[in-house]
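Thread: quick sanity check before group meeting

JM: Hey all, I'm pulling together slides for Thursday and realized we never actually wrote out the predicted structure for the chain we discussed last week. Dropping the sequence here so it's in one place. If anyone has concerns about the input, flag it before I start.
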Amino acid sequence: MYVPPKFSIDDDLAWQVVKDAGAGMLVITTPEGLASVFVPVVASEDRRTLTSHVARANPWWRSATEGIEVLGLFLAASAYVTPSYYPSRAESPGVVPTWNYVAAEVRGRLTLRDDPQWKARQVRSVTGTFEAGRDPEWRVEDSPTQYIEQQLKAIVGIEIEVLSIEGKAKLSQNRPLIDHDSVREHLAKGSLAEQIVARRMADNG
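JM (edit): ok, ran it. Output follows.
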């Protein structure tokens, strides 16, 4: 991922992007070409691993050899920016459209897990992560044991040893302050996706 200095973020913020995104695209190279799958992920406390699972019926995992490199792409905010939001264009009309976004890229090595106990722990981990704070919180134990056992047989676990992470927050930092603030104010009145970018811009200063 190309990250100009103005748009770079540190590892702590990059990991927050992964957490905020919740799910991401995992991409691998196979003999037939590139293959991707979109899945929710959970990062270990030490940030050394990401875990997830995929449907056994999904051919993605069958194309993945042990230890293959995997690229995880995570997007936490994304919105189009029109030049009409730039007050400075009145004096400097040389402007073009762009896109504001906050993203992270994780590189790692893949291990597939098919042990029932490992998968059960992972399912509880991902459920606990995304149910946290809900009222009521749904738990795996809320479903019949036999049903859960059948569901576990229908998935394959994914474990990624994290090799590196890189984050990027492109939020109009390269524009004059008057343009930056105008973009934020306009996006704040737009769609939900645009409002998310506006909040990121406000947090980013």
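AS: nice. The first strand starts at residue 8 and ends at 9. The chain has a mean pLDDT of 96.
JM: adding both to the slides.
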